[in-house]
Amino acid sequence: MNRTASAFLLIAALAGLMMALGFGLQMKGYAVGQLGNGRLASLASSAAFMPLAAIYALTAALVMILPLRAAGFIHSHGSTPVHSTALVLLATIFGVQGARFGFGSSNALEGLLDWQFAFAVGIIAAHLAVEKLRRNALLRSLAFVGFTAAMLACLYWTFRL
Question: How many Å apart are CA 65 and CA 14, to the nearest integer?
């Protein structure tokens, strides 16, 4: 958990600093500042987390059902990279919006209220809990069913509000 939080904070700070550099370049009249900020802003959207959550749910379901050696392989080569990707994208979004807020865009924090960020938070929380879920046979079975249902929901349900 400590490693996840420190990675999130570092990436958010770096993304915020890069966005601040872009704003500084824009204030001086350099067009590359706007180009760089545009690239940072378009890097990730909240809609990107739904398919990532489906991929993570599939790998977590496989970790729950496979034998130990195969589960370890899936966890280290499937679950962990998807978790890291979600963490980096979420931290980048928070850093970019924080820099926008710092440079006077008062509605920048409203972008963080998108409900689809729940998928990223779900990926991070599930990754932190997978090891504990695998220890108990009953929890492992329930987690397999839950992760399979989550995968199918992320892939085939529209989530229209």
Answer: 38
Q: pLDDT of 83-124, one tens digit each?
A: 999 999 999 999 999 999 999 888 888 888 888 999 999 999
Number of folded domains that form the chain: 1
Contact yes or no for 159/72 (Cβ under 8 A): no
Place of tokens 């749910």: 57
Q: Mention every residue, 6+ apart, whose C-beta is less than 8 A from residue 39.
A: none
pTM summary value: 0.88
In the three-class reduction of DSSP (H, G, I as helix; E, B as strand; rest coil), residue 157 is classed as coil
Is residue 161 a part of any domain in this protein? no
26, exposed or middle or buried, with CB in 10 Å at 0-12, 13-18, 19+?
Answer: middle
* Run of H or E including 96: helix 80-102
Please state whether 104 falls in left (phi above 0), alpha (psi between -120 and 50) or beta.
left
Name residue 94's amino acid.
F
Print the domain residue range for 53: 2-156
pLDDT in tens, 9-31: 999 999 999 999 999 999 999 98
The residues, any chain, with a CB within 8 Å of residue 69's CB and separated by 6 or more, are: none
Residue 150 belongs to some domain of the structure: yes
